[in-house]
């Protein structure tokens, strides 16, 4: 088990720990806002599980049944996350509605807030670890997990301030209001997650800035060729598939054209993380005078 997979596994452990602490804070206080914060932690656990699955399955090499690899596995795990997010949001709204109808004073607010705050500190520290590891090991899954935890820390901070205000002022109506706001935030996060997953399954093209970098790389490293056209890209997890036609002089030998292709491919793999390049070589009679002109 490599370091990135171990970190993903520990994310599940810490996620369950934080989830338990936040539920304990809710049980002690009876605060529906703290309940909403606890349910939001389910998303963190689900995201950690998705990252673990993605790193495990995506690392498998291509085989006869999956010649393009297994990098789309993380998109399917996101479906499970989406279901959990929807259930969590609906549960929060149900509790908030009940609390609106029957407001209740908070029980042991100081102890509950301290426990919830301690859970948030754990999230903050682990988010820093994951973000640093994601950049060091160039792991999009770990980096995304770390960024998600940072977002959760900010949300929890707002919840803590709101619940503290309820405890000080006695305005119990604020408790369900905060819970509703958290549920809306959960639904927004879930929408973003599902949107990204659907785009990945639909072979979404690489971002425009990445495509611009690809075009520049081809243009400046295809010396000896005439042009490149019909450039296409698609994303599959942390892999970027790049395909294009490269037009070379008709008299050029196969070996010379192969040298140009190797030079372009090596540079694209250096400039675009996880690039898988396919180049179709054509004679100059196929020139279209469009696409990427060679400098």
TrEMBL record:
Example of a GO cellular component annotation carried by this entry: plasma membrane
Keyword annotations: Cell membrane, Membrane, Transmembrane, Transmembrane helix, Transport
Main location: membrane
Transmembrane segments: 7-28, 34-55, 75-94, 106-129, 149-171, 177-194
BP terms from Gene Ontology: intracellular zinc ion homeostasis
MF terms (GO), sorted A to Z: cadmium ion transmembrane transporter activity; ferrous iron transmembrane transporter activity; zinc efflux antiporter activity
Domain of life of the source: Bacteria
Entries under InterPro entries matching the protein: Cation_efflux (IPR002524), Cation_efflux_CTD (IPR027470), Cation_efflux_CTD_sf (IPR036837), Cation_efflux_TM (IPR058533), Cation_efflux_TMD_sf (IPR027469), CDF_Transporter (IPR050291)
Family: Belongs to the cation diffusion facilitator (CDF) transporter (TC 2.A.4) family.
The protein, known as: Cation diffusion facilitator family transporter
Organism: Deinococcus sonorensis KR-87
Organismal lineage: Bacteria, Thermotogati, Deinococcota, Deinococci, Deinococcales
């Amino acid at each position: 088990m490599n370091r990135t997979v171990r970190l993903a596994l520990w994310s599940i452990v810490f996620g369950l720990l934080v989830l338990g602490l936040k539920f304990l804070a809710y049980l002690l206080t009876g605060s529906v806002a703290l309940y909403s914060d606890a349910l939001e932690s389910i998303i963190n656990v689900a995201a950690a599980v998705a990252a673990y699955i993605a790193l495990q399955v995506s690392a498998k090499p291509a085989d006869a049944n999956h010649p393009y690899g297994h990098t789309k596995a993380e998109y399917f795990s996101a479906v499970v996350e989406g279901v959990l997010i929807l259930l969590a949001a609906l549960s929060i709204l149900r509790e908030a509605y009940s609390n609106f109808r029957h407001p209740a004073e908070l029980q042991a607010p100081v102890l509950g807030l301290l426990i919830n705050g301690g859970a948030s500190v754990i999230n903050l520290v682990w988010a820093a670890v994951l973000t640093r590891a994601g950049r060091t090991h160039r792991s999009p899954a770990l980096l995304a997990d770390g960024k998600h935890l940072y977002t959760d820390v900010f949300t929890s901070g707002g919840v803590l301030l709101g619940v503290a205000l309820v405890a000080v002022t006695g305005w119990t109506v604020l408790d369900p209001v905060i819970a509703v706001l958290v549920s809306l935030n959960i639904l927004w996060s879930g929408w973003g997650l599902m949107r990204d997953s659907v785009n990945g399954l639909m072979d979404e093209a690489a971002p425009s800035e990445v495509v611009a970098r690809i075009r520049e790389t081809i243009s400046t490293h295809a010396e000896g060729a005439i042009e490149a056209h019909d450039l296409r890209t698609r994303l599959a997890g942390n892999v970027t598939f790049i395909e294009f036609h490269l037009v070379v002089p008709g008299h050029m030998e196969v070996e010379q054209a192969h040298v140009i292709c190797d030079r372009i491919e090596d540079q694209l793999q250096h400039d675009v993380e996880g690039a898988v390049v396919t180049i179709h070589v054509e004679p100059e009679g196929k020139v279209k005078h469009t696409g990427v002109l060679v400098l």
